[in-house]
Structures are given as structure tokens and as C-alpha cells.
């Protein structure tokens, strides 16, 4: 049975600074680099046929450190902005605590966690899913159905959209879903790509 591993990048510099990041291309923090290496150590016993990442450097850096630590050499890799973090629009670069003081904690939680409410000039999770899921169906699922093992290194919300689809979560259930940085989420799948089991490694 094929397996799919989803990995959110390690802590970025703006995660550390508690800023909305979105499509701003910030690097990993030193802690994020450590998280990526630790994820690589957890994945070292597995074999993968293909790696997918977003085009943002925090995901690419994480994938590079994972591969170096786990000993994955010459792993076929595809990078696509379809897997990028959701675009936070006018919130990008703002401190989350300051934004909560300005707009209210409840409004910021809705912007961050709801399924279909967009931050000003940004994407909702539904918008993010509208690019992530067709990409998954077109490029990743065919590999899984062919019995290939796939590693996806991406972002909190692009992975939330994918987990929502795989786990068949409702918009209400996805509100409380959080994907931690640097923690490999392992899915065992059947020949059609349906989930048989999942766990964090």
C-alpha cells in the first residue's frame, strides 16, 4: 500500500516573530532548521518516489534539510505555487497580537481558522483548497494510485486544505485543525488513494 507524508515546514523567521506570513518569502529560523532535521531523522527509514513542495523558500529549505538528514538522494522533485501558503492579503507582515488588538481576537480567529471568510484582499481556506485540491488530484493522486510513495512539504493552510479533503472534515471541524511545524503526518492509503490509517511520526 502506498503512503503519503505531509510535512509543514519548520518554524520560519516570521512564525518566530508571530507575523502573518502568507506568500512573503521568509527563511527558516534556526529552530525551524532543527525541526526540519528532526523530521528528516523520523523519515529516515522510509522510501519516497517523489517530493512535492511549494515555491516558497521555507518549504524548500525544510525539504532540503529533510533529504540531507534522511539520506534521500536524487529524489524527483516538483515545486508549484499551487502548494503555497494561503495569501493573507493586507495582513501579511503584521504581528498577530497587534492585529488581534486592532480587529478583535474573534475576528482574527475567523480570518485564520474559518473555511470561507477571507482576510482583507487575501484568500480564505476555501480559496486555498480551490488550488491545492485540483493540483493534488492531477499530480499527486495518480502517483499514489500507481503505488508510489509521496512526500509533500508545504504550509499550514495548504496542508489544512489537503487534510480536510483526506479526512473528510466539515468546514466546522476544520476550524480547530492545526498542523504543527516540522511534524510528519503519515497516511497509509489503499490502491485508490483512500485513507486506511494516519498518524504523526
UniProtKB/TrEMBL annotation:
Keywords: Gluconeogenesis, Glycolysis, Isomerase. SUPFAM superfamilies: Phosphoglycerate mutase-like (SSF53254). The keyword Isomerase applies. One of its GO terms (biological process) is glycolytic process. The active site is at residues 9, 85. Substrate binds at residues 8-15, 21-22, 58, 85-88, 96, 112-113, 156-157. Belongs to the phosphoglycerate mutase family. BPG-dependent PGAM subfamily. This is 2,3-bisphosphoglycerate-dependent phosphoglycerate mutase. It comes from Chloracidobacterium thermophilum (strain B). The gene is gpmA.
Amino acid at each position: 500500500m502506498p503512503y503519503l507524508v505531509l510535512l509543514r515546514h519548520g518554524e520560519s523567521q516570521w512564525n518566530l516573530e508571530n507575523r502573518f506570513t502568507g506568500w512573503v518569502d521568509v527563511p527558516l529560523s534556526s529552530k525551524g532548521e532543527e525541526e526540519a532535521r528532526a523530521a528528516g531523522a523520523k523519515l529516515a527509514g522510509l522510501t519516497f518516489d517523489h517530493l512535492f513542495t511549494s515555491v516558497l523558500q521555507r518549504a524548500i529549505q525544510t525539504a532540503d534539510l529533510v533529504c540531507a538528514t534522511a539520506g534521500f538522494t536524487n529524489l524527483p522533485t516538483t515545486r508549484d505555487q499551487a502548494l503555497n501558503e494561503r495569501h493573507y492579503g493586507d495582513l501579511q507582515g503584521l504581528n498577530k497580537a497587534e492585529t488581534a488588538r486592532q480587529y478583535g481576537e474573534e475576528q482574527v480567529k475567523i480570518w485564520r481558522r474559518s473555511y470561507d471568510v477571507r482576510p482583507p484582499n487575501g484568500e480564505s481556506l476555501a480559496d486555498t483548497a480551490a488550488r491545492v485540491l485540483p493540483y493534488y488530484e492531477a499530480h499527486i493522486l495518480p502517483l499514489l494510485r500507481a503505488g508510489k510513495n509521496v512526500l509533500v512539504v508545504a504550509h499550514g493552510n495548504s496542508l489544512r486544505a489537503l487534510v480536510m479533503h483526506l479526512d473528510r472534515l466539515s468546514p466546522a471541524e476544520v476550524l480547530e485543525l492545526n498542523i504543527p511545524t516540522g511534524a510528519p503526518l503519515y497516511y497509509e492509503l489503499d490502491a485508490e488513494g483512500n485513507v486506511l490509517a494516519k498518524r504523526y511520526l
